[in-house]
Amino acid sequence: MTMASIGKIARRTFLLGTAAVAGGVAFGYYSYRKPFANPLKDELAEGEATFNPYVKIGSDNRITIVAPRAEMGQGSYTTLAALVCEELDVLLDQVVIEHGPSAPAYYNAAAMREGAPFPRFDESFLAESLRGTMGVVAKFVALQFTGGSTSMIDGFDRMRHAGAAARETLKQAAARRLGAQAASLTTKDGIITDPASGRALSYGDVALEAAELAPPSDITLRERKDWKLLGKPQPRKDMLAKVTGAPIYGVDVDLPDMLYGTVRMNPSPGGRMRSFDGTAALAMPGVKKIVAIDSPYGHGIGVIADNTWRAFKAAEAVTIEWDKGPIPSSSAEMEALLTEALKGTDSFSLRTLGDPDLVFADAPHDSIVEAEYDAPFLSHAAMEPMNATARLKDGLLEVWAPNQGPTLIDTVGSRITGLPKEKIRVHTTFLGGGFGRRIEPDFSDYAIRLALEAEGRPVKVTWTREEDMTHGPYRPVAKARYKASLGEKGIPRALVGSVASPSVMESAIGRYYPDIPMGGPDNALIDGAFNQPYGIENYRIDGRKVPLAVPVGFWRSVGNSYNVFMHESFIDEIAHAGGRDPLDLRRELMADFPVARAVVEKVADMAGWATPAQPGHARGLAFSLSFGTWVAEVVEISERDGAIRIENVWCAADPGLVLDPLNFKAQMMSGIVFGLSAAIGQQITFVDGAVEQSNFHDHDALRIDRCPRIEVELLENAPHMGGAGEPGTPPSMPALGNAIFALTGKRLRRLPFANEIEFA
């Protein structure tokens, strides 16, 4: 796809967005400007008032902040609350934090804006127009979900405004009581004071009166220099419950009269169930029902019993005849299809510079560098098993689930039960790991289907680890071919790359909304390759969608997870072929991108790049811009008795604005460990139409005894706020591969590396 083609698409989308904003036929100005209803109004306790979807205050001075993004260990629970507290002028210790209900008021606009198919450094009229249009569309779609490292970006303005609006209406109510002007009153730690008289009122004293008032239209947010909470480390509000083992996760849900369930789905993705015989299972103690499941997410059986273990054992005892799914039988067959796609001409490109084909036509053969890279399917492998609890009683469906997409559960519940959305309640618990896996509504779908058979009793449905790991959805498999022509001083005159992979968007939308067709380019497929800040005059990355029928989804950092590995490995190969230091080449190619140069130079200083590594050691460098954050990493390794050990990782990151430096650093560390785990040994492979791996013994994460020392430094030069949850993952994989090459001379182009070398 040419830039002209994407320009036409963008212009058409921009026109729709303009119509939306300007009051055109497409959406309508009134509909766009009209705020969503405050979902908290229907859930107020006696003596409690709500000011907007994010703030509740009781007459007893109990302050509740709604942080409507999933807390899965990334710290959003605390920092989102801090955004409100900063402007509400209260301390974090003074508030209770809740996830809140499923509601369109909490839609994620930033995820759609940031997903526009342009590099983040592209601030052209067309790029900014499309981002604005995507933000308009986001409101009409109204999806509440956690993903794309956008929780802080999305909440930064709207949650601060929520705190400020509540503060100003409280001051208005207090002014009436005190006979003063609201502008003359001061606030601190939930107390409103009249300096003239010295009298004071608590927020609780005036909460009910204030909730009846409209906030002023000219609210001014605090300047950064006046922040009391933001920009500083804050104690994690979720930590006490986690370290004391409080029942906060979905798997901990315990309701009166509860039943328990599990599922067993066709092991061949997409395959149906011909028949089953549950006679033996129904004869087992505590087993209540065996239910056939026919869902967009899988086909098989569900078991209802009086405890989870009995449900597990009963599921094993059911005799089932399966049909084979539509997927290719083996990983080798899938790779062959990817290879064939790379040979073909069916592709799309979202960014083409110059005329690379013309350069290659005239390039001397000895100036050409070529390489092919491979990345496997991956499981998310979250520690908490997939689970959900559902109850259908008296015309009300309730679902308790550790999920990243509550409005998707609304849609699924309505589809299964026929109930309107107002008769569905989704309770989002803490998540024992998410990584994109828990945006999927499959575990809630199955729980709802079993609840239909439970005669009004709640059913907690828990998957075995094997059920999750052998059914996905997975990070997609990918294969890429890169080619460059080198000119003077080893600088690439042209670079082209072709990436073949299944489309995450087509697979995911096909599961979430089976009736909506999907087509066209998928920028996630080439994300992390086409949009990197390298000044190469003739440049093109194209994508080739390969439908393998294996369910694929949003694994941490999505397309960046494999594209950055491939792209940054190739940049390193170019440096080696041209006789250039990998740092110096990147610095030269980043001449027009000072933010990128700054993080690369910073991490080089941190790692002592200018100083030779000690004997038996080597370092590798990689960079990526993903989810708005510019990241450079250096991995240092050593070789001991023929095995590679990762010794140190240095990371410099620039998200533009850091709201909690310690938490941001923790997320970068987490992402690095996640990426190194995948680079070293993780893969999902297929034999006879089914997944070979089943648990942590054959899809393991980096254990603590193999974890390197990690040092993170943060810069704030970028012009836009970036995310924290995912950007640390992509550079870790190529940095490790580049270090291995520097130490051994062996270029590893296929993940995971443990298939070719041993790690200590």
UniProtKB/TrEMBL annotation:
TM spans (from-to): none
Family annotation (SMART domains): Ald_Xan_dh_C
Highest taxon of source: Bacteria
Family matches, as InterPro entries: Ald_Oxase/Xan_DH_a/b (IPR000674), AldOxase/xan_DH_MoCoBD1 (IPR008274), AldOxase/xan_DH_MoCoBD2 (IPR046867), AldOxase/xan_DH_Mopterin-bd_sf (IPR037165), N-heterocyclic_Hydroxylase (IPR052516), OxRdtase_Mopterin-bd_su_IorB (IPR012368), TAT_signal (IPR006311)
Designated name of the protein: Molybdopterin-dependent oxidoreductase
Domain Aldehyde oxidase/xanthine dehydrogenase a/b hammerhead span(s) in chain numbering: 244-326
Organism: Ciceribacter sichuanensis
PANTHER family membership: ALDEHYDE DEHYDROGENASE
SUPFAM superfamilies: Molybdenum cofactor-binding domain (SSF56003)
